Every structure is written in C-alpha cells, then in structure tokens.
C-alpha cells in the first residue's frame, strides 16, 4: 500500500481560528465588565479580575487543544499527530499559520524581507550556520526562479528537519537520486515555462534509474514498465509519435512539462522509505507556486516579483494542465482551481492498473487541445521532442 498522498487543498481554505479565539475572549471579558453587571454584582474587584483571567486562560486552552496556538503554530501534541503516517496533513498547518499571521494587526506592519537573487539569498542564509549547513544543496542546485519563489519554505522547521533526515540518510545509506539530481526538475523546467504538470510518487529506487524527473530514466537504462505504457498511449494518440528507444524525458521538461515526484528522495531498494518525512509538504508548496504564481492577489512568497496576472507571454499565465494518474496524484491535486486549470485524472500507467483507465485516456491529446485554445496554435507540448532512434536500450 503506497503512503497516503497529502493534498494541497488546505492551501485554498482560509481559517479564522485566531480571530474566533480573540473574539471569544473579548466576549467573555465584556460580559463581566459591562456597567449593568457591575451594579448588580457583589463580587470584590479581586474576584472579578480572577474571573476575567480564568476566561482568558480557558480560551487559550481551547485553542491549544485544537492544535493551534495564538501565533498560529501547531501545538506540540498536534505536531506529533500530524507527523505520524496515520495523522492528518501537516500542510493544513502551514496554510493556517499563513492565514492567521497575515491578518494579525500586530504583525501586518512587519515587512517581509525576500531575496531577489540567488547570491542575495545565499548571503542571507549564510548568516545562520545551522541553515547553510542544511540548505547549501538547494541554494547551489535549484533553478533560480524556483529557489526565489520557494525561499520562505526552505527555512520552515519541517523542511530543515527533513534536510537533516535526508543528509543523515545520505551519510549512512544509499539514497536516490544522487544529490546533484534531486532538483533537476527545477533546472530543466523553469517555473515561468510550466504548462503541464505530471505528478509521480517515489523516485525509482533501483541503481542508476532516478535522476530527478518523475517517470524518467537516463539514456542507456531499461525503460520502466509505467513509461512503456505512457509511450504506448502517446503512440495511439499523437500522430507521428515514434516510441523512443530510451526513457529520458529531459526534452519534455525543457518544453514546459514539470515532472514532479511527491517524494524527492528514496532509500535504495526501499519504496516509500522517505515518505511522511516532509517532502509531501514541500512538493505541495511547489504545486501551489505553479497555480498561484500569476494570480492577481497571490502571496509574495509564492509568486515571482516579475509575474503579472495579465502577462499573456508567460506560458502558464492562463492556467496549466495537471495529469493526475492514480489516487495518490489525484489527492495531490485536490483544491486546484479547475476553472483556471485543466485536471486530467485516470488510473496509473503501472502494468497493474493501466488497463483500468490509463490506456485510452487521451490525456496527451486533450492537454494539447486545451493549451492551444488558451495560448494559440503553438501553445501545445511537442510530445515528439524525445527524438526517435537515439541510442538506448529498447528492451
């Protein structure tokens, strides 16, 4: 049973927990201090103060028991539950914190300091030794527009804990893909170019396969069964598509196809070994960046400063296509605005399920038809760009 996918739906559901708590405390206090109540009361001033303080404490206790403190951080008890495999998605806590702090009068006046270049961010991170030790890989190897869009995510406690876990795994075990390839998806497919998102789950966990792109393997490596079924479907859908002799999907990435796994690392020969460690929260944030990078009121931490909602020259300005194959990928897409974006769902291309709805789904054709309506005749993806006849294993 694959690990449960965690949705980005919570990013789209604002909450008023903090304001409700504050209003509740204020209501309790006002019910005690009204002039009418003061006339009828025989309590001493000390007793009245004790009641007011008790009401405030009860409100705080209620907030804590629901897993949210006054500052929006999940309580220790809630964090423990959310971080367990069977717990609820901790992604909701990320959005809850954002929603609460952004509406707080006390914090709304504090400017958010954001780096505008890779070097600026590198200097900012270098000011904290505990950060640079964990984030040097991201600063050095992540595509710059992704790096700047996700910079706030990198310094959150869950991501720093995740990096500590992955770093320790790399020191003591074999981990795929190689460190320099973990973020290759971000280098081959810049954020501004994304038109199609294909969501995978784990990286391939056998030797020499994973290189940072979902479903893809390097040239010279045997084509995995799921990719073979993808090729078969494309051959049936796309006129002139010749099944390649290799499984390297780098050219798709260069043409605007984001090939994103939910977990970006895995222990060798142990599927799902790095699930529920924090990668799902990070990749959910990646998807949120894609969907909101050009939204009129998108949060500054999620949209490049150069993006504008009316910039039709940007390939993804009018929406992107999500290909969600299998329950895991469908769950990751929950909450995406299907009026702005096209969400194509079907069974997974795995040999175990391909005949139950993947083969014959016409997703590649539907994606191009939708993109051409949105962006004109040249707006589709050149699925044939992989290049037939190149050296590689065909078996």
List the helices and strands and how they pair.
Layout: H1 17-33, H2 35-40, H3 45-65, H4 76-82, H5 91-102, H6 118-126, H7 129-141, H8 144-149, H9 151-154, H10 157-172, E1 175-176, H11 184-188, E2 196-200, H12 225-237, H13 250-254, E3 257-261, E4 266-267, H14 279-292, E5 321-325, H15 327-332, E6 342-346, H16 363-375
Parallel strand pairs: 2-3, 2-5, 5-6
Antiparallel strand pairs: 1-4
Helix pairs in contact: 1-3, 6-7
Structure in words:
By secondary structure, the chain is an alpha/beta fold. It is built from 16 helices and six strands. The strands form two sheets. It has a four-stranded parallel sheet with strand order 3-2-5-6. It has a two-stranded antiparallel ribbon with strand order 1-4. Helix 1 runs antiparallel to helix 3 (45-65) and helix 6 (118-126) packs antiparallel against helix 7 (129-141). It is globular. Residues 1-43, 54-111, 295-312 and 391-395 have low confidence and may be disordered.
């Amino acid at each position: 049973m694959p690990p449960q996918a965690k949705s980005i739906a919570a990013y789209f559901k604002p909450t008023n927990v903090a304001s409700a708590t504050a209003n509740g405390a204020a209501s309790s206090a006002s019910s005690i201090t009204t002039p009418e109540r003061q006339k009828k009361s025989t309590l001493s001033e000390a007793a009245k103060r004790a009641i007011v303080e008790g009401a405030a404490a009860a409100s705080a206790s209620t907030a804590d028991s629901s897993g949210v403190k006054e500052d929006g951080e999940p309580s220790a008890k809630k964090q423990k539950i959310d971080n367990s495999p069977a717990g609820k998605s901790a992604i909701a806590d990320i959005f809850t914190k954002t929603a609460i702090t952004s509406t707080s009068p006390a914090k709304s006046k504090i400017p958010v300091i954001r780096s505008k270049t890779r070097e600026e961010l590198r200097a900012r991170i270098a000011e904290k030794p505990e950060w640079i030790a964990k984030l040097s890989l991201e600063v050095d190897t992540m595509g710059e527009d992704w790096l700047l869009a996700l910079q706030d995510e990198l310094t959150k406690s869950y991501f720093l804990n995740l990096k500590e876990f992955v770093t320790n795994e790399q020191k003591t075990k074999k981990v795929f893909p190689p460190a320099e390839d973990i973020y290759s998806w971000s280098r081959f497919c810049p954020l501004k170019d994304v038109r199609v998102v294909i969501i995978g789950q784990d990286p391939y966990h056998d030797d020499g396969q994973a290189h940072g792109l979902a479903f893809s393997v390097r040239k010279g490596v045997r084509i995995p069964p799921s990719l073979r079924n993808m090729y078969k479907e494309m051959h049936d859908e796309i006129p002139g598509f010749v099944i390649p002799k290799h499984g390297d999907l780098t050219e798709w990435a260069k043409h605007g196809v984001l090939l994103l796994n939910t977990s970006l690392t895995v222990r060798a020969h142990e599927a799902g070994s790095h699930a529920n460690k924090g990668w799902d929260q990070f990749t959910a944030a990646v998807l949120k960046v894609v969907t909101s990078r050009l939204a009129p009121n998108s949060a500054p931490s999620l949209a490049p400063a150069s993006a504008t909602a009316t910039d039709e020259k940007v390939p993804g300005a009018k929406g992107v296509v999500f290909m969600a194959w299998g329950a895991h990928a469908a769950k990751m897409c929950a909450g995406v605005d299907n009026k702005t974006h096209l969400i194509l769902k079907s069974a997974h291309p795995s040999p175990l399920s391909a005949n139950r709805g993947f083969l014959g789904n016409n997703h590649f054709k539907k994606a191009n038809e939708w993109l051409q309506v949105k962006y004109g005749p040249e707006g589709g993806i050149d699925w044939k760009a992989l290049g037939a006849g190149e050296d590689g294993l065909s078996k």
